[in-house]
Design a protein that fits this description.
alpha/beta, Metallo-beta-lactamase, Chain A, 9 helices, binds zinc ion
Length: about 290
């Protein structure tokens, strides 16, 4: 299984999950042009994607969806709530039901409800040849069902949206601060650390912090906070970025060369000119 985090953050989210010769895109929060540009260095193009899976309908997760769908007419899969929220824009197949596993184009997917102020938001656990990948962002709290489903994962891509002090002292208007830290907002670094305390186990090899706020967090704060749980363990910690892609390889145990089952992940160099972030001011964490 290979995972390419094309972008993660409040300006756009898109992750390619590749296994068994199949590639699905989780969320399409980049413009079509951005998507193409960011896929290219990884040997990918939009035509390689067989389906889009949606976590929820917020703009940072669907910004490029209509254009992408118009070009490639590929299946778009989400929850019933997401289908209703996007009705009239893109036809969503409402196949994602929390707790009900399904196979999408040869890839096993377990959808799990998140706690977020969207219609029916979803997180994911992907399984392929004994490797489990948990991908959960945009949740105000790590619910018991989420923790249960994420236990035993090989890699966890988990939201670490904000540092509580930076959010409290930062420039956002009070209602937005309240929304972000609510039970249906976004996970703080300390919430993610608490969740990891329950999730670190013998199978876990890598944690990737996702959906960092550009105003209310820094990669160093995330690493320090998660390091309080991961220090001394063999689990590696990486931080995703709005502006750079990140690749994670999860070889099946039999395929691994060298260290058995060794996991490889790397941050790519900054995207080439034209492939960078949207120009203009930073945007608040509406998504
Ligand atoms: Zn979001
Ligand atoms: Zn959202």
């Amino acid at each position: 299984m290979r995972i390419v985090v094309l972008a993660s953050g409040s300006r756009g989210n898109a992750v390619v999950v590749e296994a068994n010769g199949t590639r699905v895109l989780v969320d399409c929060g980049l413009s079509y042009r951005q998507l193409r540009t960011r896929m290219a260095p990884h040997g990918l193009g939009p035509a390689d994607i067989e389906a889009v899976l949606l976590s929820h309908e917020h703009i940072d997760h669907v910004r490029g969806l209509e254009a992408f769908h118009k070009q490639h007419r590929l299946p778009v899969v989400g929850s019933e709530g997401t289908r209703k929220a996007l009705a009239g824009r893109v036809a969503v197949e409402p196949l994602l039901r929390s707790g009900q596993p399904l196979t999408q184009h040869g890839l096993e997917v377990l959808p799990v409800a998140t706690s977020h102020d969207a219609a029916e938001p979803i997180g994911f656990v992907f399984t392929h040849r004994g490797r489990r990948l948990g991908l959960v962002t945009d949740t105000g709290t790590m619910t018991a069902p989420l923790v249960e489903c994420l236990a035993g994962c090989t890699a966890l891509l988990l939201e670490a949206n904000h540092d509580l002090d930076m959010l409290r002292l930062g420039p956002y208007p009070w209602p937005l601060k309240q929304r972000i830290r609510s039970r249906t907002g976004h996970l703080s670094n300390s919430q993610t650390r608490d969740a990891l305390e329950q999730l670190v186990g013998p199978e876990l090899q890598l944690v990737v912090a996702m959906h960092l706020s550009q105003e209310n967090n820094t990669p160093d704060l995330v690493r320090a906070e998660l390091g309080r749980v991961l220090a001394g363990s063999a689990v590696r910690c990486q931080v995703s970025s709005q502006d750079h892609s990140l690749v994670v390889d999860l070889p099946a145990p039999a395929q691994a060369v060298g260290r058995e089952g060794a996991l490889d992940s790397r941050l790519s160099t900054p995207d080439r000119p034209g492939g960078g972030p949207h120009p203009g001011p930073r945007t608040p964490d509406w998504g």
